[in-house]
Task: structure prediction
Amino acid sequence: MESLEQIKIRLEAAIPGAQLEILSNDSPSAERSLLLDNAHAFAVAQFLRDDSLLRLDYCSNVTGVDWPDSEISLKVKVKKIVEGVEKEVEEVTKTVRPGFLEAVYHLYSMAMKNGPLILRLRTGNRVDRVQMPSLTPLWRSCEFQEREVYDLFGVVFDGHPDLRRILMWDEFKDYPMRKDYREPDDYEYEPTPHDEVLEKARRHQAAEVTP
Amino acid sequence: MSIATASPAPRNYEVIPKTSPDGLELEGELLEVAMGPQHPSTHGVFRMDVVLDGETVVKLKPVFGYLHRNHEKIAENTSYLGSMPYTDRLDYFCSLTNNWAYALAVERLAGLQVPERAQFIRVITAELTRLQNHTSVCGFLLQDMGALGTPLMYAFREREKILDLFEALTGARMMCNYMRFGGCRCDLPPGWLDRVQKIVDDFPRFLDSYEAMLNTNEILLARTQGVGRLSRALAISAGITGPMLRACGVDYDIRKVDRYGIYDRFEFRIPLGEQGDVYDRYMIRLLEIRESLKILQQALKAVPGGPVIDPKAKLRGFRPKAGEAYGRIEGPKGELGFYLISDGSPNPYRYRVRPPSLINLTILEDMCLGQSVADAVVTLGSVDIVLGEVDR
Result:
């Protein structure tokens, strides 16, 4: 398979305006990934699937990652004049990286028998800008996995044909795989349609009694 | 005395014509049935919400989550090694391949090497796992078709022999918890390889009798051929893996593609189907058993000596460098993958299982539409799911 840099150059030529970034990976696996912007993600993914050199026809794994707000502290050595003498002083600059949710796609090619190419998509934040385009129209294997990411992380996939909770029950409110998730106190309480059924039965019986 | 009379007696009721006056056929009401979560044919707590027109399936929605315990969250709150026993509980039929997939992902993440002897033990245990999984699945499939008892019990008799081997090696029949990062937990007990050799030598005889009993059975042929057909293009797009994919005729086996472990040293073929129906899946599994036996025969002859675990591998206080890795193997059910992100702490920052059982269910509705409910049961049986892995 081509290197990630080559793929990036070809993608930028084929899809004008696409903002791509190669994310490094320092671990021994050295699996680097390609960060896409949400506006062009679908077009980029479609290109990767249909391109005759790559033919990434198989989307193996889709998963979410939660990155809460984090403080990054950078130590910088600065030369400063302290009491008339020039000294090297370490200054710590702290920057807050706003949190976001991430979806990771592992693409392989069954036709060319190679891969993986790792795609990453990010949401604007973790609260109200949690949309990203769904890739289910391109690879059917994303259907359940994107539902799972929606269920456990709260990423809303635009264009998904059937975005519902998959593992948790429909009435569940929170997103359990987020890092700041706390179990509720009434953990055992699971809402059931029982009360609704009782209410219906009551009305039904009342209607039968009154002529 | 003749029973037939020349003219029938006049009827004292009106016959309603089968077609309505405007020529349309009468339509019955659609019936919604919840199959499961306690239905025996769903292999556990799995529910299919089916909409039926008579006996024909018009709509089918799988419902998951009855066995959900958020395995991934639990793994993120414990050390890397701490979730190794938990991987046994994913697909409780194939705990050793689950162990291997997880160990492989961590080894890629931390850059660990696996000694030669451990590689051979891994191949042997994984192929034994495939053997017992495929045999049992064929038994379960026959059970779903109504062959109560016999085929499944024959399969379980052979499976039990293999589980005895696992017990001798790991101390547990099913929850083996055997592999470690950089090798295996303990060395082989004395005489274990001879016991494996005997079972591997005897297995073809069992397989011949099993196939002689079933493969020409008229009910099996009638209930499987042309049932639950899956097209090649849809199978690839839906990420179907394992015997289900190869039954559609797609030559994709991760043992050949990735050549993880030492699979490049063995000679074996990848059986391929053509139609992608239940029959092909059944036959592919039987053929894969024979290929696994070939691998076992070759591996058993060549097990070298030496350590079973990398002496440099740290089990306690294991902290891989920050980064990420995806490790995948060809499990008996399909591609089993583990995706790990490390932030340098003792716990994984993100731990994800790519469950083949769940993803192979994506196209369950496509396979069952237009068939009878009884065929939907057989189709589900041929997918080979384990709910511990589907719901995680």
Summary: Chain B has two domains: 31-61, 69-391. The longest strand of chain B covers residues 323-331.
